[in-house]
Task: structure prediction
Amino acid sequence: MVCLDRQGKLLHFEAVYPHSSEKQATEAGQKIIELCRTYSVEAIAVGNGTAGRETEGFLKKVDLPEAYR
Result:
């Protein structure tokens, strides 16, 4: 995943594995919440490639603060 500023400049990138195991899914969810807070994320985009639908479902289960839903 990546975090970009409004002009598209790369701020952060990191790989997470939300579909490998329950432990990794929990860690991925925590990392996403942390990055949303750190970078004041305004939107989350999910590609339409492999596991896109599964990733969208995963994100719906992440306990994001109301501002990020």
Q: What stands out?
A: The radius of gyration is 12 Å. Residues 22-38 form the longest helix (17 residues). DSSP finds two helices and two strands in the chain. The CA atoms of residues 42 and 69 lie 9 Å apart.
